[in-house]
Structures are given as C-alpha cells and as structure tokens.
Design brief:
This protein has an eleven-stranded mixed barrel with strand order 1-2-3-4-5-6-7-8-9-10-11. The chain has one domain: monomeric porin ompg (Porin, Beta Barrel). It has about 230 residues and is mainly beta. The longest helix is centred in the first third of the chain and has 16 residues. The N terminus is likely disordered. A hairpin with a 2-residue loop joins strand 9 and strand 10. It contains two helices and eleven strands, in the order αβββββββββββα.
C-alpha cells in the first residue's frame, strides 16, 4: 500500500511539473462511464465528461455519449452510438476560436486478450462529426485506435495505461494522440474509480490533464426479466 501511494504521488507531481497547456496550467477532466447490462448479448453504454482548461475551472467541453453494445463474446464487443459535444474553444491565447455544438455518430469494435497478468484492450472507432460553429456548419470524419493495458496489483488496486491515436479522413491526417496512465481502485465488483494523468498532443499544441473517472457497470437484465413477467 505504501508503494502505491508513492507511485500515485510521483504521477501527480510529474503531471504538475510538465504541464504546458492552455496556458501552462494543468487542466482536468471529470468523467463517468457506464456499461449497463440488458441481456446476455446487449448492454447500454452511458458516458458524461466535463472538461476544464484549468483544474476544476474555466470550462472547455461537455461531452455526453451513449450507445448500444452487442457482446459477440466475452472478448469482442461491437457498438453503435451517438455523442453530443458542447465546446468553448475560447481561452486567453485562443482569441480567434469560437464555441461549437457537435452531433457525433460513431461505430466501435473492441477486442480483449490477456498476456500473463496484463489485460489488453484494442478499441477501433469511426466517427462522423456534424459540427455547428454558429456562422457555418462542417462535416468531418475520423478514425481512432486505442491500445489499453491494465495490470492488477491486488484485488482492489490496479494500474491502467493507454495510448490512442486520432486520424482525420480529410485534410491533415494526424489529428491528435493521447497518452494516459492512472491508478485505479475497485470499490465493488461493478464500481471502480481511476485518478490519472493524460498527455494530449495535437499538431500545434500539447495539453496536460488530470483525469478523475468513475466506472459503474450495473446488471439490469434481471429488472427487464421481471418487467417482462408482469
């Protein structure tokens, strides 16, 4: 336990030391993710993210996302979903940026495998983005790939890492890259939390973000069965 606390402290100090974001401040993302089981083959994805340019202040983005998951087997999941994103692009050094509202459709495929103690997850995602900038509308398409690795430390604590690349399917190909590391805690069998650091690299900017996430995956299948019997 002592070693875990030391590791987390070093992670947080490193995030503070290398922060070079908008502008030279450590921003924060506050997130909720849910996989709500409906049956053996189907579940509902729910997600909400509140993102700030600075730690807990100076609003940047609200992201709400949902989707229908089809569980091909325990290691393969296909998803069709929708996202609503409100972005405030204005910041002290971004005087030319404007606010936007985005409607996003996405298709996703997840593959999982295990090597020794390490749990790997490969996430492939396509996105169709319909963005309203106020004075004009734009349609964009992009592909994303995320490799995630989870290492259990005990029954309660675990480490989580991922790297995700975003590729535009128009104009400049490289969109961004996200590198993430976190300490996770299993609170119950379907509730966990993670506190970590994200390095978000764009072609012309680098952002450092503290991430605080809650994952809640309830089993609602029995509820639906009971309603079907009434």
């Amino acid at each position: 336990m002592k070693n875990l606390l030391i590791l987390f402290t070093l992670l947080f100090i490193s995030a503070q030391a290398f922060a070079q974001n908008g502008e030279d401040k450590l921003g924060s993302w506050h997130m909720y993710f849910g996989t709500n089981k409906l049956s053996e083959k189907w579940s509902l994805h729910t997600e909400a993210q509140l993102r700030y340019y600075e730690n807990g202040k100076n609003f940047n983005q609200l992201l709400l996302r949902t989707g229908a998951n089809y569980h091909i087997n325990e290691n393969a999941i296909a998803t069709l979903g929708y996202g609503h994103i409100t972005t405030d692009g204005t910041f002290e050094e971004f005087t030319d940026e404007i606010n936007s509202i985005e409607h996003r459709i996405f298709e996703q495929f997840i593959l999982k495998n295990q090597v020794g103690e390490f749990n790997f997850e490969h996430r492939y995602r396509l996105e169709q983005r319909f963005i309203d900038f106020g004075d004009r509308n734009d349609t964009q398409h992009r592909a994303r790939y995320r490799l995630q690795v989870t290492l259990p430390l005990t029954d309660i604590f675990f480490l989580n890492f991922y790297d995700e690349i975003f590729l535009n399917l128009q104009d400049e190909v490289f969109g961004q890259n996200r590198l993430y590391g976190a300490l996770g805690i299993n609170i119950t069998h379907n509730l966990s939390t993670q506190v970590g650091y994200l390095k978000n690299h764009f072609p012309s900017a680098h952002y450092d973000r503290l991430q605080i996430a809650v994952f809640y995956n309830p089993d609602l299948s029995n509820l639906f069965k009971k309603n079907g019997q009434d």
